[in-house]
Amino acid sequence: MSSVLYRVNNSLYINLTNKCPCKCDFCIRQYTDSYGDGDNMWHALEPSADDIIALLNKEDLKKYDEVVFAGYGEPTERLDELLAIAEYIKNYKAVQIRLITNGLSDLINRMPTAHKFFTLIDSINISINASNKKDYVNLCHPEFGEDSFQAILQFIWDCKKHIRNITLSVVDVIGEEKIEECRKIAENFRVNFRVRPLIDPNAPEQPAQAEDSQAAQAASAI
What we know:
By secondary structure, the chain is α/β, with parallel strands linked by helices. The chain has helices spanning 49-56, 79-92, 105-109, 133-140, 147-159, 176-189; strands spanning 5-8, 11-15, 66-70, 97-101, 123-127, 165-171, 192-196. It has one domain (5-196): Alpha-Beta Barrel (TIM Barrel). It is built from six helices and seven strands, in the order ββαβαβαβααβαβ. The protein has a seven-stranded mixed β-sheet. Residues 204-222 have low confidence and may be disordered.
């Protein structure tokens, strides 16, 4: 059975999908099937929104710092389900909701999407991972090619209109010079910036500040 919900530190994560338009060189899902207390992050059949809501009903959400959409895939690949689950949580549970994403939602869904998160998503982590389209393609191998990077920048701009807490992140393997270039992008957008350590899948417990790929790092944080 796959892990639909899993826990890292004091956050509850939702492993919504295994679909992702990227194949990032550093993605943890290339090296291990488990993360946090999730034994198997791969879905034989992807859970419905109702399935996930039923599992959330069994949890005491108040004991967690936040509920996070992440997992071994890009959550916005299932945008309708994501929104339905987030709306349920907001209607019935007083809990913070965070989305970890590669920022390609608009290309995935073929429409602007940031406005859909208004009132539902409290904070968003966008894995930018590069400062230009060439480096992004070489590192993350998106199916949308060089259009991807500009789409991410547009998505960041749109998110600023609808989400208060925005963090851009990179993985520390890209080198100091490129990290600083990405930091400048975050400064220009006037959003937060985080450098994520490359996650060691063999580590017994992940550090509090480590992000996950969509489960760990391909585009997201755990």
